[in-house]
Amino acid sequence: MPNNLTRDEARERARLLNVASYDVELDLTTGPDTFRSTTTVTFTATRPGASTFIELAADTVHQVSLNGAALDPARVFDGERITLPDLAESNRLVVVADCRYSRTGEGLHRFVDPVDEAVYLYTQFETYDAHRMYACFDQPDLKATFTLTVTHPADWKVISNSAVAAVAEAAIGVRVTRFLTTPVMSTYITALVAGPYHEVRDHHDGIDLGLYCRSSLAEFLDPPEIFEITRAGFDFYHRVFDYRYPFGKYDQLFVPEFNAGAMENAGCVTFLEDYVFRAKVTEARRERRAETILHEMAHMWFGDLVTMRWWDDLWLNESFATYMSVLAQVTSTRFTNGWTTFANAEKAWAYRQDQLSSTHPIVADAVDMDAVRTNFDGITYAKGASVLKQLVAWVGQEEFLSGLRSYFRRYEYSNTTLRDLLDELENASGRDLTVWAADWLETTGVNTLRPRFETDSSGLFTTFNVVQEPASSPPTASKTLRPHRLAIGLYDRDTEGYLVRRERVELDVVGELTEVPKLIGARRPDLVLLNDDDLTFAKIRLDDRSLATLITDIGRVRDSLPRALCWSAAWDMTRDAELAARDYVSLVLAGVDAEDDIGVVQTLLARAATTLNSYGDPANRKAALRALCERAETLMRAAPAGSDLQLVYATTFAQAEDPDQVARIKAIFDGEDVVEGLALDTELRWTLLTQLVARGVYGDAEIDAELARDATAAGEKRATTARAARPTPQAKAKAWADVMESDKLSNHLLTATMAGFWVVDQQELTRPYVDRYFAEIGDIWRNRSFDTAGSITQMLFPHDVIEQETVERVDAYIAEKDPVSPLRRALVEGRDGLVRALAARARDIEAGKAAATS
Ligand SMILES: [Zn+2]
User: What 3-state DSSP class applies to 361?
Assistant: First the structure.
């Protein structure tokens, strides 16, 4: 288990210390394993004579000097912390150490490009890894200035939070780069990126802009589009926040083997390099990248300029950035369907996570860093953002933005809690948010809303109520009924058969039953849509006529957001075993070609596959998969040449297992069947090949040949996945050993291996690994880093072995082993998925019987 810090320790230290500055000197020319790190910290203590500690993860500490007195590293350094005794009022600490490069994406990560052997470094410090690079008081509310000096090979670019102040030649081939001193900031957003990166520069509104990626990816970088989004972002945020970007220049860097999507280091934002597109991607993927760019920009104000005092408020940081990025997207970029994507992606994630046994209130009780690390989940990111959207509906958007403007001015360069933000929003809106915050932020679970109405003989509503139900799963969820600001839409077919909104009513729904007097006397429509415009966070149900309308005409709902809400409702009902899996798949097959939002199309096809694999009668699976692939193939061949749709249908078709269909995939891969406009680029070739390998059609020789064509870091990852997907006992044994029995794989090759391990129709081969999983997973948490152990636990869990026996294995393991909390949590979540799938399967089997006898 990694280093830890408790909230109590952090509070105590924040009371004692006021940190002024870090002066950090790094030497990156000391070999491939470690680097020299020299830190000078100046800080004051409120109680002279007291002692404290500073964090450092280092192989060797050479020197610790406090106020001129040398401390013996052997006595004061325990591998994670340096004890600092007898503080003066004003202190100067110098620490010299050798720190280790990381291969897990935590700390200062080192990557060697297989194309040209070039070395690339970057840091990732959130939440608690800055002290892997330099000695620091590693908590968000001890802000200080940061002055970095780096000794490095002369052909490298080095980038940090601030602009370069000076560069000097130190020796032949060695340079020293010194950066300007930063404004005060938290340790977790300090950063260093170094290596022979490709660089593109631009500027906007007085801000210097930079883009970076590995040299071998330079040809794929598309600066015009990334800069366009960035410029739109600055204009938008300057306008709505009325506060200038505070960190000088703004660099965006695409870095290898990154664990997250991106990281908001002040002025030095790092991104997953998958966002440099090597092959054709859909507009949905570009939309996602734009959202990520705007999300990180929002953090420059919310997170970096004003920072949470402790990680309890991590959710607010993330929710805010997510909410603002979508708002920026729909108002300032070409991605005007951002709220549809939000409904389709974030909301779905939040609903799923909030129905797991591991759910927790949005405001988490983060007692230490272990608890914080576990909370980077769908509650923190997605439910938080959904509830923030509801808060904006509750207080009003203009009031919300006005509250923010005063918040940034008041708390610039300091730290806050949720209460500080609520105070500003209350001042701006005049609404008391205490009850609202308690009902939404301190409880768990998602309410279900149903329409209940009566009509007269001519079809006019005589009553109309919204029924609110408490959360039903997990059983431990809060039974709270919440206040919802929501809209109800009435939709009718127009003369062309499209479903268009006739009426919209917005109201507060509170308690179990809320009357909607405005709808009395209105004609019953073809579709009643609760939570229209997706203002609140709740599952919605449909009345019988509305459901019947959707079964025939879901693709005919004119606007993308209500259509996405209808698709979500059907998906929720399937997951809750209220709609049979076969009916959901039929709904997708019938309606998907009328869907024009490419992100929704991708989601629907993925959900259809999940449904037939996990929620459907296993006896029906082969036939259902054949039907899905047949539909996808037909649509692929009919789609406009070169279109996003064609690509999405091709990747769906590639999942086929039916021998005739597999033969047709092989013909496409081999170039014997040319589908006009379908580019067989690197990514699609790997996707098709991996499927052909999993089916046993192709093997090692073809993987090696493909890797020779694409001898890149990305190619290596794809080849690793393909190798693990081979349908042989040897391939599974090797993949398992590579993951479980050594620590030699980098974070990305580790996940690439696991991505190929479980294949639905390979259960005869993989079944023995259910036992091995439970036998070996405990050791993983003793021997590996937090991120590594977490991804192994989640990705190798036998999600596909949907049997009561697997559920019982989890129960027995937890009862016998009393696992550490992050392991327990991941196991319980896996168990929840199995239980849900078993219930949905039972529902589908029942529906199959009913269909056979009727
Ligand atoms: Zn974020």
Answer: coil
Amino acid at 598: I
CA atoms within 13 A on the CB side of 820: 18
Q: For residue 102, what are the β-bridge partners?
A: 109
Would you state the structure tokens that stand for residue 392, as one six-digit string?
């904006």
pLDDT digits (tens, 9 = 90+) for 16-62: 999 999 999 999 999 999 999 999 999 999 999 999 999 999 999 99
Q: Which two tokens stand for residue 413?
A: 């360069």
- Which residue in the list 25, 287, 291, 296 is annotated as catalytic? 296
Distance 782 CA to ligand 1 centre (A): 29
Q: Which of 61, 307, 322, 10 is nearest to 188 (CA)?
A: 307
- On average, the pLDDT of the chain sits at 96
Q: Can you name the residues that pair with 195 across neighbouring β-strands?
A: 157
177 phi and psi, to 5 degrees?
Answer: -110, 130
503 tagged catalytic: no
Distance 509 CA to ligand 1 centre (A): 31
Res. 633: pLDDT tops 50:
yes
Provide CB contacts within 8 A for 217, sequence distance 6+: 198, 254, 273, 276, 278
Between the CA of 55 and the centroid of ligand 1 the distance, in Å, is 24
CB-hemisphere CA count at 13 Å for 80? 8
β pairing state of 34-45 and 527-532: unpaired
Whole-angstrom CA distances from 157 to 150, 207, 215, 757, 796 are: 11, 20, 11, 38, 38
* pLDDT reading at 2 higher than 60: no
Query: Is 488 in contact with 471 (CB distance < 8 Å)?
Result: no
Q: What is the pLDDT of residue 814?
A: 97
Fill in the amino acid letter for 165: A
pLDDT tens by residue, 149-199: 999 999 999 999 999 999 999 999 999 999 999 999 999 999 999 999 999
Quote the ligand 1 centre to 228 CA distance (angstroms): 21
> What are the CA-CA distances from residue 748 to residues 570, 716, 730 (Å)?
35, 10, 22
Cα–Cα distance list, 138 to 17, 56, 429, 502 (Å): 12, 9, 36, 56
C-alpha 48/C-alpha 65 separation (Å) is 17
Helix (H), strand (E) at residue 455: strand 448-455
Q: Give the chain's radius of gyration (CA, Å).
A: 28
Q: Cα(551) to centroid of ligand 1, in Å?
A: 38
Instruction: State the distance from the centre of ligand 1 to the C-alpha of 184, rounded, in angstroms.
Output: 20
- 22 CA distance to ligand 1 centroid (A)? 25
For position 1, what pLDDT does the model report?
41
In this prediction, residue 296 carries a pLDDT of 98
DSSP output for 24-59: EEEE--S-SSEEEEEEEEEEEESSTT--EEEE---S
Q: Give the pairing of strands 250-255 and 207-213.
A: parallel
Spatial CA neighbour of 199 closest among 216, 177, 178, 214: 214
**Alpha helices, DSSP H, located in 366-411:** 369-374, 384-395, 397-411
Residue 530, beta-bridge partner list:
488
Cα 17 to Cα 20: distance, rounded to the nearest angstrom: 10
Question: 813-852 burial by CB neighbour count: b if 16+ within 10 A, else e?
Answer: beeeeebeebbbbbbbbbbbebbbbbebbebbbebbeeee
Residue at 48: amino acid letter: P
| pLDDT tens digits, 82-112 | 999 999 999 999 999 999 999 999 999 999 9
Contacts within 8 Å (CB) and 24+ apart, 570-575: 571/348, 571/607, 572/351, 572/539, 572/540, 573/541, 574/611, 574/615, 574/840, 575/352, 575/615, 575/836, 575/840
Contact 305, 246 (CB under 8 A): yes
Nearby residues of 334 by Cβ (< 8 Å), 6 or more positions away: none
Contact between 792 and 751 (Cβ < 8 Å): no
